[in-house]
Write a structure and sequence with these properties.
Layout (H helix, E strand, L loop, with lengths): L2 H24 L4 H19 L23 E2 L7 E7 L2 E11 L4 E5 L6 E3 L5 E6 L2 E6 L14 E8 L2 E15 L5 E15 L2 E5 L2 H7 L4 H10 L8 H15 L2
Antiparallel strand pairs: 1-3, 2-3, 2-6, 3-4, 4-5, 6-7, 7-8, 8-9, 9-10, 10-11
Length: 252
């Protein structure tokens, strides 16, 4: 450990001891005070270690050709950095300015100097939250009897109960010719869906394939869908989340 990090660690320990003492004297039952103290301590620690943080560990981000229309990011309308949370090397970092490049399946962030852009090493990212969406990393080689076609990468965890509903956000680069005969290159987006039940992943292409995975409660789910006017065509993701939640509610 460098002297700078050692000093920062000692400072933070003293800070916590001091805060804990004050807390015990004046607000022993105030959990909000304690939470704020911990949050401030974490923030000060991150600032103290600065560029030596393990968070800043990855290659430089490569920009795209500006002639390609659209962008490679999620959300689809992303135009700037958005603060998010990432679990990197087992440490949770909050308030990190990030963008998720779904074409390359990479999480990019701004360095401490607020100028340079780098890419997280994907194998060290356990999960991250961005734009109110929680993404988890799945390693295909760790899945037994994987017949779903799921590949290693980041997946949007739409629902994370006893069963999980996951979306794979995808962008491809397409070539076309404009109405006046000019070649164009642009990003096109699509989604693939999966459900995890037990230790098995299933690819979901339709309402029927979704219900077939949950066939032990299929008749009850069909009644629930009718009673609540749930329409897969209107909003597939919301429908799957609602049905999966009800399935968990029914129990096994």
């Amino acid at each position: 450990m460098s002297k700078r990090i050692l000093k920062a660690s000692i400072w933070c320990i003293l800070y916590v001891i001091s805060a804990s003492s004050s807390f015990g004297q004046t607000a022993s039952n105030d959990s909000t005070y304690l939470q704020n103290t911990i949050a401030q301590t974490e923030s000060n620690f991150r600032k103290a270690i600065g560029q030596e943080s393990r968070l800043y560990n990855g290659p430089e981000y490569q920009l795209y050709d500006r002639t390609i229309k659209g962008n490679a990011f999620y959300p689809l309308d992303a135009t700037t950095w958005e603060n998010g949370e990432v679990n990197y090397d087992g440490i949770v970092y909050k308030g990190v300015p990030m963008m998720y490049d779904i074409y390359r399946d990479q999480l990019a962030a701004v360095l401490y100097n607020r100028f340079s852009i780098y890419v997280f090493l994907s194998e060290r990212v356990h999960d991250f939250t961005l734009a109110d969406h929680h993404f988890v990393r799945i390693v295909a080689d760790s899945i037994n009897n994987n017949n779903s076609g799921i590949t290693t990468g980041f997946y949007d965890q739409l629902y994370g109960g006893k069963v999980e509903v996951l979306a794979k956000r995808i962008k491809n680069i397409q070539n076309a010719t404009s109405s006046i005969g000019i070649p164009e290159t642009y990003f096109s987006a699509k989604n693939e869906y999966y459900i995890k039940k037990g230790h098995t992943f299933y690819n979901i292409g339709s309402k029927s394939s979704f219900l077939n995975v949950l066939k032990d409660k299929k008749s009850l789910l069909q009644k629930y869908i009718r009673d609540n006017n749930i329409d897969f065509r209107d909003n597939r993701e919301a429908a799957m989340v609602q049905i999966a939640s009800y399935y968990d509610h029914l129990g096994n």
